[in-house]
Structure formats: structure tokens, C-alpha cells
Design goal:
Distance between the termini: 188 Å
Number of domains: 4
Oligomer: single chain
Radius of gyration: 66 Å
Shape: elongated
Strand content: 15-25%
Largest sheet: 8 strands, mixed
Strand order of the largest sheet: 10-1-4-3-2-6-5-11
Structural class: alpha/beta
Helix content: 40-55%
Length: 374
């Protein structure tokens, strides 16, 4: 049915539906374009298309395992990628020219003392470049390889020319360096190569092949040693079988030695000595009993003597306490006796009967008593 055959109402509704479908399709197209642009933006951000990159290069002996687009690492991060792997001229000392780029801000970690280590990636022979962080060498007068100047221009460090006696750090703008002729673009970093892993495996296999004949040559001495060990074990087994009767006899002898009435006991202590020892022990026991009885009697007598002495001293103490003037009377008696003797010594009839000592004075006066009595 043609469009002009429709009624005005249907044509109006159909126009509205067409406009809604067109609007939906346009909105879907805009969303698709926006998603695609968003994907491109994130892909560019992830791959570093929107960040500043600076060029570096190094010289190596071989390019095995290195490919354009391989990542460059720094402290475990992917900081860039290899951009060029080319052979050097035949007369060059190095064989391969490798150029790579480093993204911002990682080139701030690369200083003038930084180096490149070429490591083995996997067993398939792949290798990767790892840039060592700068400032760890302990050298002085270091500088960053790239930096931003005051005018926000990216500049690269240039080694000063000693002939021109240039002092300090010299930098040149990167955009000016790109215009200079020559194959070497960027800052040079010295590389330390490790051989690829397949070459290391090949060397290891060669060493094993070289050492294998020596290892096989050791099998004959090892076999001879094993034969000698087998013979030694057989000899020891025979010696053990021969020593079994000896061990049996030793066991029987030890059983007899442990018995008190066995041969060793009889040899050490004959029956006569045993009887004499028994009699001596009996005599000693009776002597000890007698001594114990005597000691008991002596102790009892001593106890009675001490009791009598205690009674005597008690009586004496009682007498002294009962007669308090006995000491003064005894002292007076002693003084009177002394005066009597001295008077007899001075008498003319009895003077010759007493002999004078060397220390005795001729006229000895009587001493007063303790209590003041003559």
C-alpha cells in the first residue's frame, strides 16, 4: 500500500515513529563513537601514547632474544619499549645497535651513572633490557639524563668536552638533537650482557659431556670398592659365627661370677677366712657390748659424784650465807698469824732461825686488813 493511500492520522503516527527510530539510532551511534573514543584514549594512556618519551640507545655484542616492541624494565616496572635493533658496521667493536624509549616520569630515575643489564627472559631464549636506577654508584657530580628546563623544554645531558674545558652540567634541547644528522639518537647507556639461556644450557651440556667420561671412569673403582666391602662384610659375618661359642662361655662365666658361692667368691673368700671373720665379728660385738655396759656404769658413777659435789657446794653456799662474818674472821685470823710470825722474826732469840730473802725488807711493817682491822 502506497504512502499516499494512508489516512492523515496514520501518516502522522508513522512520521512520529520514524523520528523516534532515527533518534534512537543516532543516540546509539553517538554512544558507540563515545565508547570507541574512550577505548582509544585508555589504550593510548596504557601504552603511553599520550606521555612524553625520551630516546636512549646502547651497543651490544649480539641481538639474540631482543625484538622491536619488547618492554624495557626499571625496578620491576615497564617503563618503555625497544624501538630499533640494527647491526653495526663491520669494523665496529660492538655488533648491535639497540634504541629504546623511556616514558615520563620514569626517565627521572635514569641518571648519568645508570647502566643496562641484559637478562634472560625464559627458556625460549628471549632477553629483556633492565635499566638500573641512578644515584647508587656513590659517584659525585651526578645529573639526570633528561629533565625539564625553566621554559618547559625537555633537555638532555651532554658530556662536557675536556678539550674545551667545559665545567658543570651541559644540557641541550631534545627537539634540536633530533634534527642533527647521524644514526645515534638520544643518551647512551652502557650495557652489561649475560649470555642467552640457550647458550648457558649449551655450555652446561658441554661441561657435562666433558665430565661424563671422568664420571664413568669412577664406576670401576666404585665397583671394586663395593666388592671389597662385600668381602669385608662376609668376613665379619664369619667372625660373628665363630665368636658365638666364646660369647656363650663368657655368659656362663659371668653367671658363676654373679653367684656368691661361685668360683670367684670362693677364691676371694675361702671358707676358713669366712669363719675367722665371723668369729672376729662376734668378739668385736661382745667387746662393744661390754664397753657399752662399762660406759653406762661410769656415767652413772660420774652422775652420783656430780650430785655429791653439788650437795657439798650447796652446803658451803648455805653456810656462807648463814654466817656472813666468816670471811672477815678468816681474814683477821690470817693477819694476826702473819703479825705473829713477823714478831717472832724480829725477836732476838729466834731471829737466827729465820733466813732473810733477797727481796724481803728488814723492817717490814704489817699491812692493814681489808676491813680496816689490825
Amino acid at each position: 500500500m502506497a504512502l499516499h493511500d494512508l489516512t492523515p492520522q496514520l501518516r502522522t503516527r508513522l512520521g512520529r515513529v520514524e523520528r523516534l527510530v532515527g533518534l534512537f539510532v543516532g543516540l546509539a551511534a553517538l554512544l558507540l563513537i563515545a565508547g570507541f573514543l574512550y577505548y582509544i584514549y585508555h589504550a593510548a594512556k596504557r601504552k603511553g601514547w599520550l606521555v612524553t618519551k625520551v630516546p636512549y640507545y646502547t651497543l651490544m655484542y649480539q641481538a639474540e632474544g631482543l625484538n622491536v616492541g619488547d618492554p624495557v624494565k626499571l625496578m620491576g616496572f615497564d617503563i618503555g619499549e625497544i624501538t630499533q635493533v640494527e647491526p653495526m658496521p663491520p669494523d665496529s667493536h660492538f655488533g648491535v645497535y639497540v634504541a629504546f624509549q623511556v616514558k615520563e616520569p620514569f626517565f627521572g630515575y635514569v641518571w648519568t651513572d645508570s647502566e643496562i643489564r641484559v637478562g634472560s627472559g625464559n627458556l625460549l631464549g628471549n632477553r629483556y633490557l633492565e635499566v638500573m636506577k641512578g644515584g647508587l654508584s656513590g659517584r659525585t657530580n651526578l645529573s639526570a639524563t633528561y629533565k625539564w628546563d625553566a621554559d618547559r623544554h625537555l633537555v638532555m645531558y651532554i658530556d662536557p668536552d675536556p678539550e674545551n674545558q667545559v665545567a658543570g652540567h651541559v644540557f641541550e634541547r631534545v627537539d634540536m638533537l633530533k634534527r642533527k644528522p647521524g644514526p645515534f639518537k638520544g643518551y647512551f647507556l652502557l650495557a652489561y650482557e649475560s649470555p642467552p639461556i640457550n647458550e648457558q644450557v649449551t655450555r652446561l651440556i658441554q661441561q657435562v659431556e666433558t665430565a661424563l667420561p671422568n664420571l664413568l671412569g669412577l664406576t670401576n673403582p666404585i665397583a671394586a670398592t663395593l666388592n671389597q666391602t662385600t668381602q669385608l662384610v662376609a668376613g665379619l659375618d664369619n667372625a660373628v659365627h665363630l665368636s658365638k661359642p666364646l660369647l656363650t662361655n663368657l655368659g656362663a662365666i659371668s653367671e658363676q661370677l654373679r653367684d656368691p658361692n661361685g668360683s670367684l667368691g670362693r677364691w676371694l673368700l675361702p671358707p676358713a677366712i669366712d669363719q675367722q671373720i665371723q668369729r672376729a665379728l662376734g668378739s668385736a660385738n661382745s667387746t662393744l657390748n661390754t664397753a657399752e655396759t662399762n660406759l653406762s656404769l661410769v656415767a652413772s658413777n660420774l652422775n652420783r659424784s656430780l650430785e655429791n659435789l653439788a650437795q657439798i657446794t650447796g652446803n658451803l653456799n648455805h653456810q656462807v650465807q648463814a654466817n656472813s662474818l666468816i670471811l672477815s674472821e678468816i681474814s683477821s685470823l690470817v693477819l694476826n698469824t702473819d703479825e705473829l710470825i713477823r714478831g717472832l722474826q724480829r725477836h732476838w732469840l729466834l731471829r737466827g732461825a729465820f733466813r732473810k730473802t733477797a727481796t724481803e725488807p728488814e723492817n717490814m711493817q704489817p699491812q692493814p686488813s681489808v676491813g680496816g682491822q689490825p
